[in-house]
Design a protein that fits this description.
This protein is mostly helical. 79% of the residues lie in helices and 0% in strands. It contains twelve helices and no strands. The chain starts with a helix and ends with a helix.
């Protein structure tokens, strides 16, 4: 009887997995076909007025890199504290639980939070608010990755560094972080891959600006918000531009994820 139940569960699990893969490939094939058909060199050289995405691509990467500059140091410091200085006290447990909750929090909730504390007090949307929203999404991933990767470093390395008279901060930065750098870098890539394709937080924070600007104190251009807006337009040409942008964004995220997996694979070797 148990063998029969096992076969039934195995069959249902396989069927569910195949259905999930079918929908995934359906989405990817549709996105690829429509995106490639709409893709041309003018997408990269012209602004939206001239059927291009140049300004939006630049704005998206500026917001993402600002989020990295804000989020990575905070996340790393928090992860180092949890693993090296907290000694598993009650504050460490609270931070770990909070980090896990934030990792699963809907991105639109983070967007409305930044809207309430940054956009409303200043009275307008801005690039800084958008970058901060993406950084808040990135921080819990960096915290968890840094905490986990430092925990995998053998205790003997710490003891050896202390035995030769090195201060603790030198042991952490010169020995422990170097030993865990591949895993931490993989976490950085995965966190970056997550925020680069986010739309909901930017709708409430950076706003909608299709023109080139480096002024982060005003509404800032972003590709994801533009895709959301263009996909609802009645003009087929604008919808095709949205498909091209979605394809480029998906391709970039796919490359980052594959790079992260390759780094992990090489580390295991």
């Amino acid at each position: 009887m148990r063998l029969v139940i096992n076969k039934i569960v195995l069959f249902l699990s396989t069927l569910a997995a195949l259905m999930g893969l079918m929908f995934l490939f359906w989405i990817l094939i549709t996105l690829t076909l429509k995106g490639i058909n709409a893709l041309n060199i003018h997408i990269f050289t012209n602004d939206l007025v001239n059927n291009g995405l140049r300004n939006l691509l630049i704005g998206q990467f500026i917001l993402a890199f600002l989020a990295v500059i804000i989020g990575v140091p905070i996340g790393m410091i928090a992860g180092i504290y949890l693993q090296e200085y907290s000694f598993d006290n009650k504050y460490a447990a609270f931070i770990r639980n909070l980090s896990d909750v934030m990792m699963s929090a809907p991105s639109i909730v983070i967007g409305t939070f930044i809207y309430a504390i940054v956009v409303m007090p200043f009275g307008h949307m801005s690039g800084w608010a958008g970058a901060l929203a993406l950084a808040v999404m990135m921080i819990p991933i960096i915290v968890r990755t840094t905490d986990d990767m430092l925990g995998l470093v053998p205790r003997e390395l710490r003891e050896a560094g202390i035995a030769i008279g090195a201060p603790k901060y030198k042991v952490i930065f010169d020995i422990i972080l170097k030993a865990a750098k591949v895993g931490i870098m993989t976490g950085f890539l995965l966190a970056f891959a997550r925020i680069i394709g986010e739309t909901a937080p930017l709708l409430f924070t950076s706003g909608n600006n299709e023109y080139f600007t480096l002024d982060l104190n005003r509404e800032f251009p972003s590709l994801t918000v533009a895709i959301y807006n263009l996909s609802t337009m009645p003009d087929k040409n604008l919808v095709d531009i949205a498909w091209a942008g979605a394809f480029l964004l998906t391709l970039f995220v796919l490359v980052i994820n594959l790079l992260g997996r390759y780094i992990v694979k090489e580390k295991k070797r």
